[in-house]
Amino acid sequence: MRAHADFDQLLQTIVDDLAPERGAGELADYIEPLRRVDPLSFGMALCTVEGELYCAGDATQRFSIQSVSKVLSLTLAMQHGRHDLWRRVGREPSGNRFNSLVQLEHERGIPRNPFINAGALVVTDVILEMLSDAKATLLDLVRGVAGAADIEFDREVARAEHETGHTNRAMAWFMKSFGNLQGDPEAVLDAYFHHCALSMSCVELARAGVYLANGGCTPEGMCMLSPAQTKQVNSLMLTCGAYDAVGEFAFRVGLPAKSGVGGGILAILPGRFSVAVWSPGLDRAGNSVLGTMALEQLSSRTGWSIF
Amino acid sequence: MRAHADFDQLLQTIVDDLAPERGAGELADYIEPLRRVDPLSFGMALCTVEGELYCAGDATQRFSIQSVSKVLSLTLAMQHGRHDLWRRVGREPSGNRFNSLVQLEHERGIPRNPFINAGALVVTDVILEMLSDAKATLLDLVRGVAGAADIEFDREVARAEHETGHTNRAMAWFMKSFGNLQGDPEAVLDAYFHHCALSMSCVELARAGVYLANGGCTPEGMCMLSPAQTKQVNSLMLTCGAYDAVGEFAFRVGLPAKSGVGGGILAILPGRFSVAVWSPGLDRAGNSVLGTMALEQLSSRTGWSIF
Amino acid sequence: MRAHADFDQLLQTIVDDLAPERGAGELADYIEPLRRVDPLSFGMALCTVEGELYCAGDATQRFSIQSVSKVLSLTLAMQHGRHDLWRRVGREPSGNRFNSLVQLEHERGIPRNPFINAGALVVTDVILEMLSDAKATLLDLVRGVAGAADIEFDREVARAEHETGHTNRAMAWFMKSFGNLQGDPEAVLDAYFHHCALSMSCVELARAGVYLANGGCTPEGMCMLSPAQTKQVNSLMLTCGAYDAVGEFAFRVGLPAKSGVGGGILAILPGRFSVAVWSPGLDRAGNSVLGTMALEQLSSRTGWSIF
Amino acid sequence: MRAHADFDQLLQTIVDDLAPERGAGELADYIEPLRRVDPLSFGMALCTVEGELYCAGDATQRFSIQSVSKVLSLTLAMQHGRHDLWRRVGREPSGNRFNSLVQLEHERGIPRNPFINAGALVVTDVILEMLSDAKATLLDLVRGVAGAADIEFDREVARAEHETGHTNRAMAWFMKSFGNLQGDPEAVLDAYFHHCALSMSCVELARAGVYLANGGCTPEGMCMLSPAQTKQVNSLMLTCGAYDAVGEFAFRVGLPAKSGVGGGILAILPGRFSVAVWSPGLDRAGNSVLGTMALEQLSSRTGWSIF
């Protein structure tokens, strides 16, 4: 592994090299706040397990992390060690779009994994069974690991998700019909929509995720998960973190990662670092076009990969 | 990583600890030669990138490697660098049984990945377009990497596959109907059935696969694939190598691996070693029950994992 | 056609012959009011286009007509001649269970036909776009055609449907997500659940349905549909009226019919008569076991069939 | 029913009225002989149960009857009263394209009905179990009911089907893998392709099919099926005869019918007549555009319909 001193330059080179590609892909258009993001935005930040931080581009601008939050809510649910979590949600890639109800029908309301929408709804339901205020608790967790006390839910995004989230609402009721949702679907959806509406920058996201590269603990020694649990989360990110393009993503990038339709991606090199990229243009699978390219370059230029 | 001197003992401990589980799972029963394998068989072999070999249990007894051969035939196809390979076969986990035709119909004859049967048939077709004798060439490749000139196809297995392989035959014709099979389906099936009928021991299989842990080259310096290609194959093993249980396998074991219904599994720790296990009892997904447990123990006892 | 004088005896013979089969099949068990119906109940009523009525068994006992009401709500929607009705709901047999969401996903929220739950929800939504009180209007229609001013919704059934109808709720939101539901899903569901909760006897149901045998008009000359529309409804009953067993039902009975999970079936011989049967034990497809047998006997003993 | 004297004029009026539509739809293009049919062809013939024949347009020109032959092969299989026929093939509309393998996988090799390709292959297999020469026997049957000793298989069509019929071949092997094909798939396919390659005119087809309108017997008194069996075939035509558009066809036309991709349709009004139409342009479901329009006009102008 090259000296850390080179990292800032490495990220800058990648950001510069990909400058001509800015604007590639399509913005998520299902809610207004995502539609009006600057399509040319592009940022990148890397946080080592020692806590050193490197960044380039629009790395301090906040964006809607959307499904990247599913890693954080899964962490929260696993912290409380619920014995029935893995009976209520599977651990397999879905082979379908992230918002498909087909698989739920065929597999009697058990979502394939915690990183598709249905799975994250079950994870949220599990959290709500344990905690009186699932929104505040996750916010506290995120502020803690990111070291940024002013991280907030984007209320406008949460409200827009609530108003248009009919497919998620259908999923929640469908799982309720199979007995795989304990709480009131509207309460689960409210918490879920807020989690998706977390607004964070690349710098904050890289910091927030570095515990996954460090056996479950932050560089400051705050432990979120056990080493064994951390491996499990990383394995799920690898096999289920990039919507219906996990194979392609592993083939090209070779790092456990979770993407969101806001254009953010959090990737992990276990034992080394976390890296967050953001560019709002998405490919057909819903992953950031430039984000994926940036991670691919990071891997190919350095040989860093789990493979 | 612990000293190599401990490896023999490590494997022996795993084999001993799992002795009470021998016989767990169900033998593949679709052809007679697989039905009459001793269900108590259990072997394990590990080959480091330096070429050092460690083993325990029935590690020198040959068995039918079945779908583990798909890694070798993919290697052969990638060696010849066919530009259209990845247009004709995908790189995503299937989310379906290994012999499903449903996905082929929905995706117009393009198999999801090279490690399900349909994908391996396309890979075989690609090989046949380049090589006059696909069977002999693969046999030569295997003998070379395994360092065992007497490795053979089990003709009885190949014949039994031929006689009962109606589902594979249906797949081949179905892909032909979509224009995704160039050759005569019967010729493709003949080569494919022979590849699946390779008879190898854990020792031979670990040796044969160590190039995947070593950037594409054997410890003796014979290079099968480039480092970039090697990463790609490993990523495909991780996301697609364990039938419809890849997520579960990654969650528990955390190593790229390819399993076969003969009960063999080849797993890779990049940069370190390859490991082959064999026990013929299968779980519902078609993966060796004891083989998976042994790899899980190897990972949990040592912390070795890509995550 | 035999003399009408024989009809009472014909129905009585069928009811007597099938007496040993009373209790066959399984009661619908998803709501309490359906679970406590007497499983031995069995009634039959036939109404000719001249308005003559014949009956046998428990023909005057009211039961929950459930999905048989879908014929009446479709009639109501067609009366108002909405131009977009057939763009929002298809006219094909579903090949799936009556409460499947799979087909909705594959066909972008357009239900296959108006007699599966999703289709009836769209029909109800269409009615609600036109009428301020969809429940009262349908009740008036039913009372009119049945000639029974005291027909009511069973409020207990409606409430139980409301409390347990999560799958229907999921469907409604899912169609809303595709833009194929205009109204508030809860309002649509409320009207739908009430329609399903209509409580009628065989005598009332036979009378209520005879307009379908008479070119759209009751024997008293009240016209519900045009002759062309009447044929259309009958054709839909034949191809879509018996859940996922329409082929089998046509093969055995040979009459357009609509069944409900309360155990009722309304069948039509165009130009001749309507016939209603009721017995609460259901087969796997959700059709009344004795009801189907009774109609099969009616057809085989008399040769009455559209084929 | 109007006097027979009007029939010639009625057919002629329909043919004239639809003249501007000649050429609508797309010709089947999967084999060369079907591609070179004159797209403007349009013929119509009606045969009453008394044996009177009426026709208009290109009613004496022969065409490839394709799937209309499935009615004849089913008749042949039912004549021999095989007890296991309905255990090996279902009686439900498929809800899928005529050549889908998906349903076969989900329902373990049992085709939904005898009028989709897979079902007709099973019917052909059943015939081959009973008869040494399935091709000659069906040809004899057809010549007999059509009263035309010179009806032949179009050998060029049969050969082209054989050469391009990979999807049917995949289906045959797939059903073989489920144990639902007894014979050699190639022999079954050979007989099946020949049955589809029957070359007949509208006049011959109307004559050949009139036994279905007459309780199973030709006007000359040759009985092919019992009255009960005849009803069964008619019900299957209604629920399964028009590919994936049976509901639409019943809604618009209201007659049991079987169509073929050669552009022919045979329809039945039980107790009255058979009618054959032919025009090679197909709609998306594979039914003749003008043929369907002609039958719709026949029904709407006269009120003739089973509904």
Automatic annotation (TrEMBL), chains A, B, C, D:
GO biological process, one term: L-glutamine catabolic process
Gene3D superfamilies in alphabetical order: DD-peptidase/beta-lactamase superfamily
UniProt-annotated binding residues for substrate: S67, N117, E161, N168, Y192, Y243, V261
GO molecular function: glutaminase activity
Matches recorded under Pfam families: Glutaminase
Source domain of life: Bacteria
Coiled-coil ranges per UniProt: none
The entry's keywords: Acetylation, Hydrolase
Catalytic activity entry: L-glutamine + H2O = L-glutamate + NH4(+)
InterPro entries documented for this protein: Beta-lactam/transpept-like (IPR012338), Glutaminase (IPR015868)
EC number: 3.5.1.2
NCBIfam families in alphabetical order: Gln_ase (TIGR03814), PRK00971.1-1 (NF002132), PRK00971.1-2 (NF002133)
Subunit structure: Homotetramer.
PANTHER family named among the record's database cross-references: GLUTAMINASE
Family membership: Belongs to the glutaminase family.
The protein's name: Glutaminase
Gene: glsA
